[in-house]
């Protein structure tokens, strides 16, 4: 594999992850700051915290909408102009997004900063770039798979460093992370220009001109129609629905989580950044050493592992609600030990939320194993792209749902005084959705349950005969 091109791609992914994650612990504080300084908003909204929560939810939803539209667009660009020029476009769009964010003075500018993220699909482009680099000789498939695996490692490095760095910088300047992200994205543009090449996946007897002609003649609508055919597949379609419904629950919880930590438990930007970094590295470690033993513990049945994951998340979400409510009640009461409560709350809520992240990862990874194992190797890219798109659609619904429940008027005077009534509404909603997910997955498993064979990377021993889903 062309080492310089692969290394440049990995560096780009690290920079992309760092740049994106720099903003995560900052946005809740930035939204609140801009709403507070926006006189036109403060005149007619009496509850500033509720307004900030709702704005944060709508902003997250808007970002997901843009991402949903952009995912197939970037996929089409990869087919038509190749990985190199698509990569340049993606990182240039990211730089523009962060530049607008670095100059945002009103909530409207925050929304405007999300528009260039239409092209912000660097991980997808990185996968396509690595997959297109020529690999020859024995074990080429294994080496390509290993190269694609290193993409996840590269992103994990950035996702671990980014939040902690962003929170630390935000302690003195809420815009410092955005300005740094502009430079990180521009460096990726430069790396793409200098080191990336355009490759074709055509046979040796076909010229580059012929490959380009076939590429440009491919209908975008035909490709989309082919991908959407998976939704009608009797085995894969229900799994995709389950994964999309799971996305609503997980995105609702993940959206309100930083709001609870920042507004109710008084985490500073630096503490929020450290918390997010801890979650990222915990999930990465579990993915590296925990998934395989967990799979073996359920007899290599990925549907059972998915069921176990959602069950664990249900328990973890309820546990987080109890721990966070305890911390809120402790903060609401003046005691001599009150100064120690933030430390206890920091540790307890971090452990509980990490448990939610780990169980969510177990569930989502198992579902992806089921869907990708049910199609041919040539169709896996399409099914993964469809999963990304459906999850982005779920994130259009989940964040505003979570923040609406969090910001709704008080239902209990006691809970309202603690500030926990909104949190408990979200916990109950997520728990109900997780129970429904467990029921749906149980029905699917009884009808279509399979065993995952890690040696062939396929689902085997179907309980019912599979159906053809080709058009």
List the helices and strands and how they pair.
Layout: H1 3-21, H2 27-37, H3 39-42, H4 48-102, H5 107-114, H6 122-132, H7 140-170, H8 176-195, H9 208-217, H10 220-228, H11 236-264, H12 269-289, H13 291-297, H14 302-332, H15 341-373, H16 380-407, H17 413-418, H18 421-448, E1 451-453, E2 458-460
Antiparallel strand pairs: 1-2
Which key terms come to mind for this protein?
471 residues, two-stranded antiparallel ribbon, 77% helix, 1% strand
Task: Characterize the structure shown.
Helices cover 77% and strands 1% of the residues. The chain is mainly α and 471 residues long. It has a two-stranded antiparallel ribbon with strand order 1-2. The longest helix has 55 residues. It starts with a helix and ends in an 11-residue tail after the last strand.
Concise overview:
The chain has 471 residues and is mostly helical. It contains 18 helices and 2 strands.
The radius of gyration computed from the alpha-carbon positions, rounded to a whole number of angstroms, is: 23 Å
Straight-line distance between termini: 35 Å
Low-confidence stretches: 39-46, 200-208, 213-218, 335-340, 451-471
What is the 3D shape? Answer: globular
Class by alpha and beta content: mainly alpha
- Kindly report the spatial arrangement of strands forming the biggest sheet: 1-2
Proportion of strand residues:
under 5%
Share of helix among residues?
A: over 70%
Number of extended strands = 2
The succession of helices and strands, N to C, reads HHHHHHHHHHHHHHHHHHEE
Q: In terms of quaternary structure, what is this? A: single chain
**Main beta-sheet strand count, sense and barrel state:** 2 strands, antiparallel
User: Helical stretch count?
Assistant: 18
Whole-number average pLDDT? 78
């Amino acid at each position: 594999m062309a080492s310089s091109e692969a290394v440049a791609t990995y560096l780009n992914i690290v920079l992309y992850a760092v740049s994106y994650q720099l903003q995560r612990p900052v946005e809740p504080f930035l939204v609140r700051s801009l709403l507070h300084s926006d006189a036109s908003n403060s005149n007619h909204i009496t509850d500033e915290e509720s307004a900030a929560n709702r704005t944060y939810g709508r902003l997250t939803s808007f970002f997901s909408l843009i991402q949903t539209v952009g995912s197939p667009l970037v996929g089409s660009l990869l087919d038509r102009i190749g990985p190199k020029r698509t990569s340049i476009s993606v990182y240039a769009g990211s730089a523009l997004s962060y530049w607008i964010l670095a100059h945002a003075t009103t909530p409207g500018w925050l929304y405007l900063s999300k528009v260039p993220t239409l092209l912000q699909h660097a991980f997808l482009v990185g996968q396509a770039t690595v997959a297109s680099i020529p690999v020859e000789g024995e074990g080429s498939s294994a080496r390509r798979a290993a190269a694609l695996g290193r993409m996840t490692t590269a992103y994990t490095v950035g996702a671990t460093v980014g939040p902690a760095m962003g929170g630390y910088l935000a302690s003195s300047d809420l815009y410092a992370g955005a300005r740094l992200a502009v430079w990180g994205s521009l460096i990726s543009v430069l790396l793409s220009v200098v080191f990336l090449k355009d490759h074709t996946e055509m046979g040796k007897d076909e010229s580059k001109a012929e490959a380009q002609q076939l590429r440009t003649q491919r209908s975008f609508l035909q490709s989309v129609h082919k991908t959407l055919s998976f939704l009608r597949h009797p085995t894969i379609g229900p799994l995709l629905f389950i994964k999309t419904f799971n996305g609503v629950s997980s995105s609702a919880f993940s959206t309100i989580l930083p709001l609870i930590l920042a507004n109710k438990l008084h985490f500073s930007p630096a503490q929020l950044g450290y918390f997010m970094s801890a979650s990222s590295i915990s999930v990465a470690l579990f993915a590296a050493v925990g998934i395989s033993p967990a799979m073996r513990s359920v007899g290599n049945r990925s549907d059972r592992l998915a069921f176990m994951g959602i069950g664990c998340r249900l328990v973890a979400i309820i546990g987080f609600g109890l721990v966070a409510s305890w911390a809120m009640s402790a903060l609401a009461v003046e005691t001599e030990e009150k100064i120690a409560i933030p430390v206890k709350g920091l540790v307890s809520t971090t452990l509980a939320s990490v448990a939610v992240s780990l169980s969510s990862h177990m569930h989502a990874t198992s579902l992806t194993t089921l869907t990708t194992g049910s199609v041919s190797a040539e169709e896996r890219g399409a099914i993964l792209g469809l999963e990304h798109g459906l999850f982005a659609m779920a994130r259009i619904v989940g964040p505003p749902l979570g923040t609406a429940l969090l910001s709704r008027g008080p239902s209990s005077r006691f809970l309202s005084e603690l500030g926990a009534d909104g949190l408990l509404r979200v916990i109950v909603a997520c728990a109900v959705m997780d129970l429904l997910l467990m029921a749906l997955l149980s029905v699917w498993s009884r009808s279509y349950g399979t065993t995952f064979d890690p040696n062939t990377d396929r689902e085997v021993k179907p309980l019912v005969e599979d159906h053809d889903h080709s058009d």
